[in-house]
């Protein structure tokens, strides 16, 4: 047992040496945990923020000007006032997601109680933004119209004061979300590619054969790959979380960092094991690349780190429950944003550990048959 | 012209190693030239410089009357030089058949169909390969691979044939046939010069002219007889040693084999050992017993089952039938204790090329758990004994074959095993080093009682074995002491004996003489761009991928799976949000408010909350996304018009979801309020204005209309770039890049040829995806179908070019795979409008999207599918995609070097 651990350690050192010997790999790992995180965190907004709106104001009245000036940051960029002819090109090119059309005589008809129509054009292909943005614009217009007309016609106070508060991210700043999720997504990409390709390389170069005539078991070989690559990835992601996300981008971390690291280790084990498992299904590097890519991208998009799990059909949510990512995303959100302690997140940790063990067991089973297979 | 090539003061350095040190030499034309010398003296480098496949560092090299530093001259004479690199069949394509490999080379040299077929028929007949034109090159034996490599080199009637250790690892019969073949070809083409690097003096005897190299310098040159006369030695071996500077003259003694003391018991026993792969029987009921301390030689033609037998004895392969015993016990592959007793060296180099020589040895010492103070000194001792101290801190890939073999040997004996299983350990090792190695083996056997099971192609090594076994086609033909076998067969020596055994058993085809196809008219201009050469590469690449079923399946099934998964999986219609209620009032009014939530399809109710702290807990563990808190007295206050407060807690961890919840809650509360007011008889003040919201392009506001075009963009970014990303870098790792370097194919032809099949494949895949989108998801193409199809073609062109670019400047497959995945995923997912419209990206985000083709295609995809845009609206994007493709391609061209550095 002890000597087994020692051998795993020695093999891990070897893996680390291989990894460190490749400057391109190191450069990409560095990029992924620094620049890419900042890029995605600062570049990507899922909530309605600074959306570009245009207004066609054919009324040019006090009311219409009020509406234009009420479309304000942070939700919207200062609205562009455009002509009717500019609507189609502006929307076709994706420059404007929303265009508000205020017809002539809007104000006077409103004052006369004729209920004039105001139109909001929404680019429905901009899914993430369109629905929520339209609701906000409707509310803004309704509010402005109501308060404008209230000068002449008093409206009663609302019968109920509904106080809506967001916990954990009061301003719903999406950077808090995307920065951390990008770190998690990167852990998954790196884990799968690094360990999987490390195994394929050993097979293509014939070194695996040499390992297997030594007093080393397949499990030890697999664990060494997992520990070496995992240590680098967990280390890099922790540094990224502390220095890039927390310190650099100023995003608060609510929960316990050691608890997060513990979860990250479990996740890393199960996802690197997944990488190894994929590698046992491929014989060459080109095959591995084509096999790993769809898996990676599926984990990236469907584990709840990008779009909410609630948007997926039930069968897909069920399938995704068998991936470690879904549980780690839930775990990380709970720990980092909501300050959850181990008493709340142990179920996710347990599932990740179980998935890791199951994947490793499957891997080990395939390993022997794969090695002896003749090319 | 009397010299075919000349070197003037040429120095070549790899890191700190001087491979060539101020070499000046003239190679005479029309001769059979041999470069002799031990491993790592610069033979390969010299030949590569003459062939023009390696860049000259300093000094000047001329060949075929021109300066090899001049790219134009190299291009002009590429068709007159043939270069066969070191290593068994390294420039062959394993999945292509014998005929197809030759056909590929014929095409590279611009030969027409009739000429190719005639030449191939001739070459196959004269090498005895004609019975197997359809056998994949990867399934050929080593000797046959070398013959095929030679055929590939000869297909264009070169004026200068350069062979780098062509017979290393080839069995004696094949070796003899190989040299006979060269002689016959030279007889027919007397003007042809042949330059051969070899470590075997017996081969060098038959050459016309020799240059002896040592330590990067030429230490002697001339005909074999001249060299012998010069040094006054009788053999070339001795002459070479005499030419060495005094300090380098190793203590050269003959190897003597002391008699074997009769050991007790058997170390290795094979009983009816059989191994089948499918319907091919590699090893067929093999029986032998090896006594303890015996040196047992294993001889046989290449591919006869020697390696497979050895693998079964190490436990790497499980026998299909029969059993292998090690020290009287059945071999258990899982038993690590037996592995400690065995040292194994495989035929191919199987140590870590990314670790240094010393690190490799230390790793092995550690894995075998040699106790510490001894381990370091053992590593040191082995480095000394195998003469590896000088290169201890270099990586094996920079070492010549012979040194790598020595390293493997050193590693195999490092842990002092009781049994050594060595698969062609001395292939490619120079004679002096081989002798010292054998002294070591004999010492191990006779002094330490180590049992040695060794396969070899060298007869003088076989003679040193206690017993040998001759194997052919999976069967053992004879076992016995070498002398006894020679006597039984009545032949003069072991080599003749061996060949006679083989010829008796074998189906070796006799080479036939055919009329040689007329040589190409000399002076024919080499075209600077030849579509035929491009086609040769494209055709070969297509055949390779069509035969790689797994890759083909992944290339089609992967994208389709993604389209289906994401088409059904990604949407922005957030539904079934888990919520729970903390109703402290429990009045009619509060229940009415809550009914609006429970009746909504957006929300799904969980068990009620019973305490304030529960709200926090259940939100924190992610169970709830929304909690409603209604204080006591809510109903009473409402009725009395006191405007009571109700609290809504949203989990803000995921801002998009929180945003959506907020807008749902607003909607529900407004409906409820209107209801309340009407109920209480208040006249509902109609809103003073009417707000109409028009969802353009996608009236039904269905996610699939915007997701599917985006997923198409994503897939066509990831998969095509991944297809090409490993194309060139893989050739670098495998070694077939040598063909690009040594044939007239230009960089443009090479790159376009490698790209074209993947563009076609990806385009077919796009067709499948498009059909799925239209037929299964019911997605109409509202706008310009032409723009969509043209856009997809240009986009695929750009993404495959991107993959190719990575492939040209990176050196390892792992790095190429990794970089391509990262560089394609991050912008395609985040900055191209897949999830978040480009309009709401920040400046930096938009910029990050603009510098990749994916965002530009997203506009075409969504414009043509959903927005119904016409061709001219999308034309600018088409132009941009084309520009991306061109820029990537030009960068790839610039990064690709025709010569090795």
From TrEMBL, chain A:
It is found in: Cell membrane. GO terms for molecular function: ABC-type transporter activity. Signal peptide: none annotated. It comes from the Bacteria. Residues 134-370 form the ABC transmembrane type-2 domain. It is a multi-pass membrane protein. The keyword Transferase does not apply. One of its GO terms (cellular component) is plasma membrane. Keywords: Cell membrane, Membrane, Transmembrane, Transmembrane helix, Transport. PROSITE patterns: ABC_TM2. The chain crosses the membrane at residues 20-41, 175-200, 221-247, 259-281, 288-306, 345-363. The keyword Membrane applies. Belongs to the ABC-2 integral membrane protein family. This is ABC transporter permease subunit.
From TrEMBL, chain B:
Coiled coil: none annotated. Keywords: ATP-binding, Membrane, Nucleotide-binding, Transmembrane, Transmembrane helix. Residues 658-899 form the ABC transmembrane type-2 domain. GO terms for molecular function: ABC-type transporter activity; ATP binding; ATP hydrolysis activity. Its main location: membrane. Residues 5-240, 268-498 form the ABC transporter domain. SMART domains: AAA (SM00382). SUPFAM superfamilies: P-loop containing nucleoside triphosphate hydrolases. The chain crosses the membrane at residues 550-570, 704-729, 758-779, 786-809, 815-835, 878-896. It is a multi-pass membrane protein. It comes from the Bacteria. It is found in: Membrane. GO terms for cellular component: membrane. Belongs to the ABC transporter superfamily. This is Ribosome-associated ATPase/putative transporter RbbA. It comes from Rhodoblastus acidophilus.
